[in-house]
């Protein structure tokens, strides 16, 4: 049974891209499933002067792709209210409180309030200060804050931001979104590890050779050039999504599967990730920026030619690196990570590469010529599932081994019907479950890990390495892994190269 949740949402940045593309459709899905029924209301605030009617039209348009009936759309959007609001203006909070109290009574919301900050982080401090000073959070129910990434732009700025927020909300009330943690297969990492003893008993440096995490995007910066050019792939992807995935892969087995125990184990894992010196950072991390190319018949422009990107930009659109985890379990097992824009294809996947058999008894001439390694692959998107590559005997005379793949993928139908990441996370926040959100200790440790890399790169002069759009990154990313006598398992670009569709 889907238990009805009772709350007032206040969405700061209610006219923005995130609210329209992600939040409103997610709220509608929760509504359709009965998690939200009659006892909920939404106040959208932003600078624009919209009326409730206009706002409701926007809501209706934003859920269009979910094909609601006319009555459904009407009933759902009737819970939405708009208030023009400049977050810097104290008087506006006064009217916000009045509206909130009025809706609380009208919809019997029991004083439960969720504040969603879908705005630039430089406004967060002002907003939370006012929520307190104007007594908007003085209710008999709960008050929770949902915050979007990026949480700061370095350890120092994140700490400042955290202090501002913590002056008003305690850690249990803060839900820092990392939408990757809402993805089905990310949550499945724990299922694969802890639900299958065959894997967990091999999940250490005795049997695992290396682990590879790839989050690849096949688009450029689109219309977010202004934001991206100041951020870059290291801060945009590694600090949050990739390090969260690494923490889930590397953590110890929690005693029980609960928010608190998982968080504790993830924090311990992140604390074991070696913080490099600047010199080590340059050795173990490489960056790149995409340049124009013709890929699969399509002309792609260079990063520097994108709108709102500086023509001499040195911002990285690709990062690859080797992380080292200094603990009993992982000593000697490199975690290779890579992410980038304008790569061959959009996909996220994890490859766990097991050690080869110590000797190859099938090759008496040279028993040291190792067999292909077993690989467990976790597919996160666009397909979801896992595969295990094993060596089997090729059918026929003689004794030749061939890799065979046991492959399980969720069907398109399951994927279609599975809750979207934002939907799951909003529901978790309504229920007060912070398992899939990032705790301050995780955020701060992640910044400590990436800050050194950033500082090392910022001291370098001259152009940064480039890669042709449509490829899987600069040559340096391949050299990095080859230097360790390893190789990237996943090479989607090869298919296109073999067909002359990619240079
Ligand atoms: P956006 O620019 O589309 O929207 C920003 C919103 O803030 C608008 O509603 C605008 O009216 C409002 N706003 C700006 N200044 C204001 C002020 N002084 N007073 C009141 N309202 C003001 O941005 P977005 O893409 O929706 O992103 C919002 C936040 O979410 C950002 O921090 C972004 O980094 C983060 N984020 C966005 C996405 C995405 O897919 N769009 C993904 C992850 C994180």
Automatic annotation (TrEMBL):
Binding of substrate, residues: 179, 183, 217, 236, 341, 346
Reactions it catalyzes: D-glucose 6-phosphate + NADP(+) = 6-phospho-D-glucono-1,5-lactone + NADPH + H(+)
A family per Pfam: G6PD_C
Binding annotation for NADP(+): 13-20, 47, 149
Keywords noted in UniProt: Carbohydrate metabolism, Glucose metabolism, NADP, Oxidoreductase
Annotated metabolic or biological route of this protein: Carbohydrate degradation; pentose phosphate pathway; D-ribulose 5-phosphate from D-glucose 6-phosphate (oxidative stage): step 1/3
PROSITE patterns reported for this sequence: G6P_DEHYDROGENASE (PS00069)
Listed EC numbers: 1.1.1.49
Enzyme class: oxidoreductase
GO BP annotations, alphabetical order: glucose metabolic process; pentose-phosphate shunt, oxidative branch
GO molecular function terms attached to this record: glucose-6-phosphate dehydrogenase activity; NADP binding
InterPro entries: G6P_DH (IPR001282), G6P_DH_AS (IPR019796), G6P_DH_C (IPR022675), G6P_DH_NAD-bd (IPR022674), NAD(P)-bd_dom_sf (IPR036291)
Glucose-6-phosphate dehydrogenase NAD-binding domain residues: 11-188
Family: Belongs to the glucose-6-phosphate dehydrogenase family.
Stated role: Catalyzes the oxidation of glucose 6-phosphate to 6-phosphogluconolactone.
Annotated protein name in UniProt: Glucose-6-phosphate 1-dehydrogenase
Organism listed in the record: Vagococcus elongatus
Lineage, opening ranks: Bacteria, Bacillati, Bacillota, Bacilli, Lactobacillales
Gene name in the database record: zwf
